[in-house]
Design a protein that fits this description.
Length: 269
């Protein structure tokens, strides 16, 4: 599968690749530990990752089903593979993981010997296939057994800004779902103190928010306080803003409707 995934290696978003590599191998203070040349070499090789869709159990005669995907598909900005996510949802993964670009399904028996098992087109690939209907219970059996061994209760990791958990950035926080992204900006006076009343936002030029397909500008009292170039496009007509007050002061709450309908790894490009 490597040649298949290698074909689009030149389209890798190197900035995003650098960020992801730094999270795993470097640090924000020393991001140079992973060079761009090394990253391009990795992308050029064609990276194949496997995701176990069905765990081998006695109930399925020790047969597992894997999804094989492009490990850097997201970094190539490939489209979300919604059909693969639907398979995962039917197999009991909630929320289902996100896959980008083409994926391949493979099935194998692990006992008594390791061997590949054919997938029959339009039968095993149907949404109501017998193996898929049994997958949720088989995966639950496997997870229960693993939790008993490890003493842990593992859950699926979530992306930045998902499940209502705000991601803090310089000057704002943000949350997201597949349909929209919400950005919260704390409004400040010229001396840096918090604005405590919405009435204070009306003087000195007021508050202006401009939406474009790939960016957003916020002006407060005739000064630019935030300018973002979005990671992906939004629908300007589907973007709104409002003011909200809490114990810390007045916040500008911006909601933008995504055009791609997928989770973003970050807000900006």
């Amino acid at each position: 599968l490597k040649p298949w995934f290698r074909a689009l290696s030149k389209k890798v978003d190197m900035g995003l690749f650098q960020d992801q590599a730094t999270k795993h191998f470097g640090s924000s203070e020393n991001p140079g530990q992973v060079s761009q040349e090394a990253l391009m070499k990795v992308a050029d090789q064609g990276q194949v990752e496997s995701f176990t869709l069905v765990q081998p159990r006695e109930s399925n005669r020790h047969t597992m089903v894997n999804i094989y995907l492009d490990e850097v598909g997201m970094l190539k900005r490939l489209p979300l593979n919604k059909r693969a996510a639907q398979f995962c949802g039917k197999a009991g993964f909630n929320p289902p993981p996100k896959f980008y670009g083409d994926v391949f399904l493979g099935r194998m028996k692990v006992k008594p010997v390791l061997k590949n098992i054919d997938f029959k087109l339009n039968i095993d690939t149907a949404p109501d296939a017998a193996w898929l209907q049994a997958a949720t219970m088989e995966n639950l059996e496997h997870q229960t057994a693993m939790n008993q061994i490890t003493g842990r209760n593992d859950t699926q990791p979530v992306g930045d800004g998902e499940n209502g958990v705000a991601k803090a950035e310089d000057g704002y926080t943000w949350t997201q779902n597949d349909e929209e992204i919400e950005i919260v900006i704390s409004l400040k006076s010229e001396d840096g103190s918090s604005i405590t009343s919405t009435k204070e936002t009306k003087g000195g030029g007021g508050l202006k928010v401009k939406f474009f397909a790939k960016k957003m500008n916020v002006e407060f009292r005739k000064k630019d306080i935030l300018s973002l170039s979005f990671y992906a496009s939004v629908d300007p007509d589907g973007c709104t803003w409002t003011l909200d007050s809490d114990a810390n002061g007045v916040n500008l709450v911006v909601t933008c409707e995504k055009n791609d309908g997928v989770s973003w790894p970050r807000v900006t490009v």
